[in-house]
Amino acid sequence: MLYKIWRYSHFYLTVSSSLFLLLAAITGAILAFKPIQEKLQPFYIHQANEVVLSELIDTLSNKYDEVLDLEVDNNYFVKATVFGLEESGQFYINPFDGNKLADIPKPNTFFESITNFHRSLFLKTTGRIFVGITSFLLFLIAITGLLLAIKRQGSFVKFCSKIIKDGSIQYNHVTLGRLLLIPIIIIAFTGTYLSMEKLSLLPNTKVSTITNKTQNNKAIPLSEFAIFKKTSLKDITKLEFPFSTDEEDYFTLSLKDKELKINQKTGFIVQETHYPFVQILSVLSFNLHTGNGSILWSFILLISSLGILYFMYSGAMISYYRLRSKIKNKFTAQQAEYIILIGSENGSTKQLGKVLQQALIQANQKVFLDDLNNYQTYSKIKHLLILTSTYGQGEPPSNANLFLKKLQQTKIVHPFDCHIIGFGSFSYPKFCEFAKEIHRQTLLQPNINIATETPLLIHNQNYIQFKNWVDTWAKSLKLNISIPKELSTKKQKETSFKIIDKTNIKDQYDETFTLTLSQTKRKKFAAGDLLSIIPPDETTERLYSTGKNANGDLLLSIKKHTYGVCSNYLNQLKPNDTLKAIIQKNKDFHLPKKADSVTLIANGTGIAPFLGMIYEKTKAEMTLYWGTRTKISATLYKSLILEAQQKGILQHFDIAFSKEVHPYNYVQDLLVRDENIIVKKLKNGDIFMLCGSIAMRDAVFIQLEKTCIKNHLQPFEVYKNNGQILTDCY
Ligand SMILES: Cc1cc2nc3c(=O)[nH]c(=O)nc-3n(C[C@H](O)[C@H](O)[C@H](O)COP(=O)(O)O)c2cc1C
């Protein structure tokens, strides 16, 4: 409940202040340059930090006929107003010898007008009110954002520790938010304070004045005044000299926190006026808000202002993803035979649920889509499809936290089938834990027929895996539905390929073949990209991982399925035939450019992308572990692998044969044999790339996990999070 309040507050506060916030952030970013530009004056080396006031007074009294005042600005540059034979007027002086350094520059009109706009939008008091409110809203936005980020991460400790990189815009939002939280709170707080001051909303605190009784009447030289001797220039803001020699005319010395009246003959402090706290805070707020006097702080303010602009963009995108996935239903919960229930925090899982809902509606099926939290009794239900992500420490997303309780309490009128699909990320130790928990609990429900022994678990919202599941599920129910080839609405163009080579190999188990394709019109691609092929008279695409030979031709490795439409279609193609297909970029599975060593692990036709990578120009040491069934099947790629070995690109290559009498039946067995090397590679931050079946991936993961534990390495998740483990498995 609280979470919802924070989320809505964060959203509405940002929306309501967005225009002013945008203007304030842009002008704020520009104004952050002002102190930087001021501080970069050519005479910056003459700053007054270490000079004692009495020395400068002495120097100036000797050099000029009359001194009216001295000012030390926030950059510790010293201005003096003097009369003398050579120089008169107000100018910057060298605090060491009193010489004139520069005239006071005219105010920069550009910065002045931007400052006015930033403070009041050129609308005087009304503008100031808007600006003040915006600052306060920014303060609230920062606080609600902090609470949301803590909730997102699971706890305050987790918020402070490493945030798992998942490539999402939320990751950027939270990571940047954590970095800029304190400066933004300071900007917001000081902005609010300054606006309140200008609008006279601060309490009227009294100035405390102490008048001292004269204790000695002895006149002493100026340079002997105790107060001048103990005060350094860096502590003062202004010193006004007495107007006349009349003893009632005093030196007025303004320090950071008080003002002193000093007898011009005796140096005795006649009166001390302590500034009220409100005023000291005003000066502090002003300096913190403007970066006055500090290049470093100005730079932080600049980054923070730009950060606010980025947050507005990333926040808008996050909200867009959430709102885009608002649920609309054509049928009611009691009319529908297909119920899709979603557990989703940021909308991506919901988006997939909607795609499935649309496909079912198009196939004239009665479907109802809802949040998992709204689970109830459905009178016509035949199929329940649960799609859920996992958050926190394997916890439900916020629209699913009541589901398990409701599952226990809700009456089931008649039995129905149920499929559970989990969406999560390998980066988290409890991968898809909530989906697994739902699976465990639904298994205990007598009237729910769980279709599979384990739920389908999908890493990083892999759409292709989801689409494959939908296709298989629809086929099993003889439903004529198909979801789009990809989620993005961008339509890609088909490219023509010419078959230039085809090789088949058959053992007693399988038939596998390779196709070498040249592009009629060369389009850039890299090994690891996907080739989308729609067989003739079909609407459903099939995706194949691509390799690339030394000539830059595209390589496909395909297992022939007896009743497989696409594999049979491709198998009947002959050299010189043409194939139309679309290359889909798969950037997450390209050979990393900077790596000392890359270990490629594949089984079956999963070797395809690696057949390209072993020809790429790379400084990395390359190892390929491949699992296949028989020695005969291994001959298919022999020449390609040999070529890469002869060229010196592929340094190590090893095969595991699952159907031969052989010491190593599976790729994970090779990993056990080479454990010491694997340990070194994991420690060294080297890359591991896996392509092939999900069963192979899971077995390799289990083995690597064991290796980590046995050798006292970091938990395996750490290596996954580092981006050391790349997968493309289906
Ligand atoms: C803070 C946070 C915690 C997460 N915790 C887990 C987790 O414990 N296990 C897991 O498999 N995925 C975890 N994930 C990944 C999400 O489940 C995954 O990104 C999912 O695709 C998000 O789907 P949604 O946008 O529908 O919420 C987490 C993500 C975030 C941002």
TrEMBL record:
This is NADPH--hemoprotein reductase. The lineage of its organism: Bacteria, Pseudomonadati, Bacteroidota, Flavobacteriia, Flavobacteriales. Residues 338-478 form the Flavodoxin-like domain. Signal peptide: none annotated. It holds the Pfam family PepSY_TM. It comes from Wenyingzhuangia gilva. Keywords: Flavoprotein, Membrane, Transmembrane, Transmembrane helix. It comes from the Bacteria. Gene3D superfamilies: 3.40.50.360, Nucleotide-binding domain of ferredoxin-NADP reductase (FNR) module, Translation factors. The chain crosses the membrane at residues 12-33, 129-150, 171-194, 295-321. Residues 492-592 form the FAD-binding FR-type domain. The keyword Transmembrane helix applies. Its EC number is 1.6.2.4.
